[in-house]
Design a protein that fits this description.
By secondary structure, the protein is of the alpha+beta class. Helix content is about 20%, strand content about 40%. The strands form two sheets. It has a five-stranded antiparallel β-sheet with strand order 2-6-5-4-3. Strand 4 (about 50-60) and strand 5 form a beta hairpin. It is flat and about 45 Å long.
């Protein structure tokens, strides 16, 4: 089943992260999220400016998550949000009778 990722980033972002994103080499940040929080990548999308991606990391057992902005050209990333109680919402499947409309 496919899931949409519903994040209320404004409500779950800690003030320190919101004010000063933690940035560093992409590989270092990914390693830290895995080692310290047991989080692994579960979703990503290309950013609207085309200069990188936005990626979501999740620990499915504890339901903690982190959102990072990855800058591909510089091989850097910034932690832009983190939180708890992650929940994936189901994507509505199109009704077969509505296809082609």
């Amino acid at each position: 089943m496919r899931f949409a990722l519903a994040l209320l980033v404004a409500l779950v972002t800690t003030p320190s992260v919101a004010q000063q994103p933690l940035c560093g080499p992409f590989d270092t940040i990914v390693e830290s999220l895995a080692k310290n929080y047991g989080e692994r990548p579960v979703a990503l999308g290309i950013s609207s400016d085309g200069k990188g991606s936005v990626e979501i990391f999740l620990n499915p057992s504890t339901r903690t998550f982190s959102v990072i902005r990855r800058f591909a050209a510089q091989r850097m990333a910034c932690l832009v949000a983190d939180g708890e109680e992650f929940e994936a919402l189901p994507i509505d499947q199109p009704d077969a009778s509505q296809e082609g409309l």
